[in-house]
Amino acid sequence: MDRMILVGVDGTSACHAAIRWAILRAATLGSCVVLVHVVDDEWGMIGEQSISELHPSAYALVEKETVYARSIDSAVTVSTRILLGDPMVELGVASREVDLVVIGTHKTGFLHGRAFGSRSLQLAATAWCPVAVIPEGSTTERHGIVAGIDDSAAGRAAVRFAATEAHRVHEELVLLRAWTSSVHGSEAEDGAAEQRARDALETLGSESVALAHSAGGGVLVRTRTLRRPAAEALVDAGMSAELLVIGSSRRHGAQMAALGPVSHDVLLNIAGPTLVVHGDTEGHPEAELAGRTK
Question: What are 11-49's pLDDT values in tens digits?
Fold first, then answer.
Protein backbone atom coordinates (compact mmCIF):
# COMPACT_ATOMS: atom_id res chain seq x y z
CA MET A 1 0.00 0.00 0.00
CA ASP A 2 1.27 3.49 -0.83
CA ARG A 3 2.10 5.76 2.06
CA MET A 4 -1.01 7.77 2.81
CA ILE A 5 -1.75 10.79 4.98
CA LEU A 6 -5.37 11.57 5.80
CA VAL A 7 -6.34 15.16 6.56
CA GLY A 8 -9.68 16.06 8.12
CA VAL A 9 -11.03 19.20 6.40
CA ASP A 10 -13.92 21.50 7.26
CA GLY A 11 -13.14 24.71 5.41
CA THR A 12 -11.69 26.57 8.41
CA SER A 13 -8.32 28.30 8.74
CA ALA A 14 -7.34 25.61 11.23
CA CYS A 15 -7.84 22.93 8.60
CA HIS A 16 -5.66 24.98 6.24
CA ALA A 17 -2.84 24.71 8.79
CA ALA A 18 -3.33 20.92 8.81
CA ILE A 19 -3.38 20.71 5.01
CA ARG A 20 -0.21 22.74 4.65
CA TRP A 21 1.62 20.65 7.26
CA ALA A 22 0.48 17.40 5.65
CA ILE A 23 1.37 18.45 2.10
CA LEU A 24 4.86 19.57 3.08
CA ARG A 25 5.37 16.29 4.91
CA ALA A 26 4.00 14.23 2.03
CA ALA A 27 6.34 15.98 -0.41
CA THR A 28 9.39 14.79 1.52
CA LEU A 29 8.07 11.27 2.14
CA GLY A 30 6.61 10.53 -1.28
CA SER A 31 3.20 10.08 0.33
CA CYS A 32 -0.20 10.78 -1.13
CA VAL A 33 -2.73 12.90 0.75
CA VAL A 34 -6.43 12.21 1.18
CA LEU A 35 -8.63 15.15 2.15
CA VAL A 36 -11.65 13.84 4.07
CA HIS A 37 -14.73 15.90 4.86
CA VAL A 38 -17.35 14.37 7.16
CA VAL A 39 -20.91 15.66 6.86
CA ASP A 40 -21.80 15.80 10.55
CA ASP A 41 -24.74 13.56 11.37
CA GLU A 42 -23.82 12.62 14.93
CA TRP A 43 -27.44 11.95 15.94
CA GLY A 44 -28.49 10.22 12.71
CA MET A 45 -31.04 12.91 11.91
CA ILE A 46 -30.11 13.55 8.27
CA GLY A 47 -32.55 11.92 5.88
CA GLU A 48 -31.84 10.75 2.35
CA GLN A 49 -33.19 13.93 0.80
CA SER A 50 -31.10 16.09 3.13
CA ILE A 51 -27.98 14.09 2.30
CA SER A 52 -28.45 14.80 -1.40
CA GLU A 53 -28.92 18.47 -0.59
CA LEU A 54 -25.83 18.61 1.61
CA HIS A 55 -23.51 16.79 -0.78
CA PRO A 56 -23.17 19.62 -3.33
CA SER A 57 -21.78 21.98 -0.68
CA ALA A 58 -19.57 19.19 0.66
CA TYR A 59 -18.15 18.55 -2.81
CA ALA A 60 -17.58 22.27 -3.30
CA LEU A 61 -15.71 22.38 0.01
CA VAL A 62 -13.34 19.51 -0.80
CA GLU A 63 -12.74 20.90 -4.29
CA LYS A 64 -11.76 24.24 -2.78
CA GLU A 65 -9.43 22.55 -0.28
CA THR A 66 -7.91 20.45 -3.07
CA VAL A 67 -7.03 23.62 -4.97
CA TYR A 68 -5.43 24.99 -1.81
CA ALA A 69 -3.47 21.76 -1.21
CA ARG A 70 -2.15 21.67 -4.78
CA SER A 71 -1.11 25.32 -4.54
CA ILE A 72 1.34 24.30 -1.81
CA ASP A 73 2.99 21.52 -3.85
CA SER A 74 1.44 20.38 -7.11
CA ALA A 75 3.65 17.26 -7.20
CA VAL A 76 1.85 15.65 -4.25
CA THR A 77 -1.02 13.38 -5.22
CA VAL A 78 -4.22 14.64 -3.59
CA SER A 79 -7.55 12.81 -3.51
CA THR A 80 -10.79 13.43 -1.61
CA ARG A 81 -13.47 11.53 0.29
CA ILE A 82 -16.83 12.59 1.72
CA LEU A 83 -18.24 10.64 4.65
CA LEU A 84 -21.40 10.90 6.75
CA GLY A 85 -21.58 10.61 10.53
CA ASP A 86 -19.79 11.88 13.59
CA PRO A 87 -16.56 13.47 12.24
CA MET A 88 -14.18 12.10 14.87
CA VAL A 89 -15.72 8.63 14.77
CA GLU A 90 -15.54 8.45 10.98
CA LEU A 91 -11.96 9.73 10.91
CA GLY A 92 -11.09 7.14 13.54
CA VAL A 93 -12.53 4.36 11.39
CA ALA A 94 -10.73 5.70 8.31
CA SER A 95 -7.44 5.74 10.25
CA ARG A 96 -7.23 1.96 9.83
CA GLU A 97 -6.39 2.49 6.16
CA VAL A 98 -3.70 5.19 6.42
CA ASP A 99 -0.30 5.89 7.96
CA LEU A 100 -1.12 9.18 9.65
CA VAL A 101 -4.16 11.34 10.40
CA VAL A 102 -3.74 15.12 10.52
CA ILE A 103 -6.26 17.58 11.90
CA GLY A 104 -6.14 21.28 12.66
CA THR A 105 -7.24 23.02 15.82
CA HIS A 106 -8.08 26.54 16.93
CA LYS A 107 -6.98 25.69 20.48
CA THR A 108 -3.89 27.66 21.45
CA GLY A 109 -4.81 28.74 24.99
CA PHE A 110 -4.28 27.24 28.40
CA LEU A 111 -6.96 25.10 30.00
CA HIS A 112 -6.34 22.39 32.57
CA GLY A 113 -8.53 19.51 33.62
CA ARG A 114 -11.44 17.81 31.94
CA ALA A 115 -13.08 19.52 28.98
CA PHE A 116 -16.14 18.56 26.98
CA GLY A 117 -16.52 19.15 23.26
CA SER A 118 -12.82 18.76 22.47
CA ARG A 119 -13.37 16.30 19.67
CA SER A 120 -9.75 16.09 18.57
CA LEU A 121 -9.01 14.43 21.93
CA GLN A 122 -11.43 11.65 21.05
CA LEU A 123 -9.72 11.08 17.70
CA ALA A 124 -6.25 11.04 19.22
CA ALA A 125 -7.42 8.45 21.74
CA THR A 126 -9.16 6.09 19.34
CA ALA A 127 -7.29 6.31 16.01
CA TRP A 128 -5.47 3.22 14.75
CA CYS A 129 -2.46 5.21 13.56
CA PRO A 130 -0.53 8.24 14.82
CA VAL A 131 -2.51 11.50 14.93
CA ALA A 132 -0.92 14.90 14.30
CA VAL A 133 -2.77 17.93 15.69
CA ILE A 134 -1.71 21.21 14.09
CA PRO A 135 -2.72 24.47 15.76
CA GLU A 136 -3.66 27.45 13.65
CA GLY A 137 -0.80 29.91 13.30
CA SER A 138 1.92 27.31 14.00
CA THR A 139 3.99 28.13 10.91
CA THR A 140 6.57 30.24 12.77
CA GLU A 141 10.24 29.23 12.64
CA ARG A 142 10.72 26.06 14.66
CA HIS A 143 13.66 23.82 15.46
CA GLY A 144 14.19 20.37 16.93
CA ILE A 145 12.06 17.34 17.67
CA VAL A 146 10.90 16.83 21.25
CA ALA A 147 9.62 13.58 22.77
CA GLY A 148 8.13 13.13 26.21
CA ILE A 149 9.53 9.99 27.81
CA ASP A 150 8.29 7.68 30.54
CA ASP A 151 8.58 4.01 31.43
CA SER A 152 5.74 2.69 29.29
CA ALA A 153 5.19 1.12 25.87
CA ALA A 154 3.63 4.39 24.71
CA GLY A 155 6.66 6.35 25.90
CA ARG A 156 9.00 4.03 24.02
CA ALA A 157 6.85 4.33 20.88
CA ALA A 158 7.15 8.12 21.17
CA VAL A 159 10.93 7.89 21.38
CA ARG A 160 11.16 5.65 18.32
CA PHE A 161 8.89 7.84 16.23
CA ALA A 162 10.65 11.04 17.32
CA ALA A 163 14.10 9.57 16.63
CA THR A 164 13.26 8.50 13.09
CA GLU A 165 11.63 11.88 12.50
CA ALA A 166 14.69 13.75 13.79
CA HIS A 167 16.88 11.62 11.53
CA ARG A 168 14.63 12.33 8.55
CA VAL A 169 14.59 16.11 8.96
CA HIS A 170 18.20 16.38 10.25
CA GLU A 171 17.16 17.96 13.53
CA GLU A 172 18.26 17.51 17.12
CA LEU A 173 16.15 15.22 19.28
CA VAL A 174 15.35 16.33 22.83
CA LEU A 175 14.09 13.65 25.23
CA LEU A 176 12.14 15.35 28.00
CA ARG A 177 11.70 13.88 31.48
CA ALA A 178 9.49 15.65 34.01
CA TRP A 179 8.74 14.74 37.60
CA THR A 180 7.20 16.08 40.78
CA SER A 181 7.76 14.97 44.35
CA SER A 182 4.75 13.44 46.12
CA VAL A 183 6.38 11.99 49.27
CA HIS A 184 5.36 13.30 52.69
CA GLY A 185 7.30 11.22 55.20
CA SER A 186 10.17 12.12 57.50
CA GLU A 187 13.11 14.10 56.17
CA ALA A 188 15.17 10.90 55.84
CA GLU A 189 12.35 9.04 54.11
CA ASP A 190 11.76 11.95 51.75
CA GLY A 191 15.45 12.13 50.91
CA ALA A 192 15.64 8.39 50.18
CA ALA A 193 12.49 8.48 48.07
CA GLU A 194 13.76 11.45 46.11
CA GLN A 195 17.07 9.72 45.45
CA ARG A 196 15.24 6.63 44.18
CA ALA A 197 13.20 8.86 41.88
CA ARG A 198 16.36 10.52 40.56
CA ASP A 199 18.00 7.13 39.99
CA ALA A 200 14.93 5.90 38.11
CA LEU A 201 14.96 9.03 35.95
CA GLU A 202 18.64 8.55 35.19
CA THR A 203 18.01 4.95 34.12
CA LEU A 204 15.03 6.01 32.04
CA GLY A 205 17.11 8.66 30.32
CA SER A 206 19.94 6.27 29.48
CA GLU A 207 17.57 3.62 28.14
CA SER A 208 15.67 6.21 26.08
CA VAL A 209 18.87 7.59 24.54
CA ALA A 210 19.95 4.08 23.55
CA LEU A 211 16.52 3.44 22.03
CA ALA A 212 16.66 6.72 20.12
CA HIS A 213 20.09 5.93 18.70
CA SER A 214 18.94 2.48 17.58
CA ALA A 215 15.88 3.94 15.85
CA GLY A 216 17.37 7.16 14.49
CA GLY A 217 20.85 6.20 13.41
CA GLY A 218 23.31 9.02 14.05
CA VAL A 219 20.74 11.50 15.31
CA LEU A 220 21.95 14.00 17.90
CA VAL A 221 20.13 13.25 21.17
CA ARG A 222 19.92 15.52 24.19
CA THR A 223 18.04 14.88 27.45
CA ARG A 224 16.34 17.39 29.71
CA THR A 225 14.99 16.72 33.20
CA LEU A 226 12.53 19.20 34.66
CA ARG A 227 10.98 19.17 38.11
CA ARG A 228 7.50 20.28 37.17
CA PRO A 229 4.22 18.73 35.94
CA ALA A 230 4.82 16.75 32.76
CA ALA A 231 2.09 18.41 30.69
CA GLU A 232 3.36 21.90 31.50
CA ALA A 233 6.93 20.95 30.59
CA LEU A 234 5.83 19.39 27.30
CA VAL A 235 3.63 22.33 26.32
CA ASP A 236 6.48 24.77 26.94
CA ALA A 237 8.87 22.63 24.89
CA GLY A 238 6.31 22.43 22.09
CA MET A 239 6.21 26.21 21.73
CA SER A 240 9.42 26.23 19.68
CA ALA A 241 9.76 22.60 18.52
CA GLU A 242 9.25 21.55 14.93
CA LEU A 243 7.30 18.60 16.32
CA LEU A 244 6.35 17.41 19.80
CA VAL A 245 5.79 13.64 20.02
CA ILE A 246 3.88 12.20 22.97
CA GLY A 247 2.84 8.66 23.77
CA SER A 248 -0.57 7.77 25.14
CA SER A 249 -1.42 4.34 26.48
CA ARG A 250 -4.50 2.85 24.87
CA ARG A 251 -7.48 2.66 27.20
CA HIS A 252 -10.25 0.11 27.15
CA GLY A 253 -13.87 -0.27 28.13
CA ALA A 254 -15.73 2.88 29.14
CA GLN A 255 -12.52 4.96 28.90
CA MET A 256 -11.66 3.86 25.36
CA ALA A 257 -12.27 7.35 23.93
CA ALA A 258 -10.23 9.10 26.63
CA LEU A 259 -6.57 10.09 26.58
CA GLY A 260 -4.31 9.79 29.57
CA PRO A 261 -4.15 12.92 31.76
CA VAL A 262 -0.80 14.17 30.42
CA SER A 263 -1.71 13.78 26.73
CA HIS A 264 -5.14 15.27 27.46
CA ASP A 265 -3.66 18.41 29.02
CA VAL A 266 -0.98 18.78 26.34
CA LEU A 267 -3.57 18.78 23.54
CA LEU A 268 -5.83 21.20 25.40
CA ASN A 269 -2.89 23.57 25.85
CA ILE A 270 -1.30 22.83 22.47
CA ALA A 271 1.45 25.24 21.46
CA GLY A 272 2.79 23.71 18.24
CA PRO A 273 2.54 20.68 15.94
CA THR A 274 1.94 17.69 18.22
CA LEU A 275 1.81 14.02 17.32
CA VAL A 276 0.25 11.29 19.47
CA VAL A 277 1.31 7.64 19.18
CA HIS A 278 0.07 4.59 21.05
CA GLY A 279 2.35 1.96 22.48
CA ASP A 280 0.04 -1.00 22.02
CA THR A 281 0.07 -0.64 18.23
CA GLU A 282 3.75 -1.59 18.01
CA GLY A 283 4.23 -4.11 15.24
CA HIS A 284 0.88 -3.37 13.60
CA PRO A 285 0.94 -2.13 9.99
CA GLU A 286 -0.71 1.13 11.04
CA ALA A 287 2.10 1.93 13.47
CA GLU A 288 5.01 1.59 11.09
CA LEU A 289 4.97 5.06 9.53
CA ALA A 290 7.95 6.15 11.60
CA GLY A 291 9.98 3.17 10.46
CA ARG A 292 9.28 4.01 6.81
CA THR A 293 10.26 7.67 6.96
CA LYS A 294 14.02 7.32 6.77
Answer: 888 899 999 999 999 999 999 999 999 987 755 555 555
**Whether 103 contacts 17, CB under 8 Å:** no
Instruction: Give SS3 for 223.
Output: strand
Q: CA 115, CA 107: separation in Å to the nearest integer?
A: 12
Determine the Cα angle at 123 with ends 18 and 135, to 5°.
Answer: 30
Quickly state the pLDDT bin for 232 (edges 50, 70, 90): very high
Label each residue of 56-120 as H, E or C: HHHHHHHHHHHHHHHHHCCCCCEEEEEEEECHHHHHHHHHHHCCEEEEEECCCCCCCCCCCCCHH
Express each pLDDT in 158-206 by its tens digit. Answer: 999 999 999 999 999 999 998 876 655 555 556 777 777 777 888 888 9
Q: How far is CA 151 from CA 55, 156, 256, 262, in A?
A: 47, 7, 21, 14
* pTM score: 0.83
3 state SS of 240: coil
Determine the Cα angle at 272 with ends 88 and 226, to 5°: 115
Burial 207-222 (b: 16+ CB within 10 A, else e): ebbebbeebbeebebe
Distance, C-alpha 254 to centroid of its chain: 22
Give me the chain's average pLDDT, please.
82
Separation CA 204–CA 210 (nearest Å): 10
- The answer to whether residue 139 scores a pLDDT higher than 70 is no
How far is residue 186's CA from residue 111's CA, in Å, rounded to a whole number? 35
Calpha distance 125→148 (Å, rounded): 17
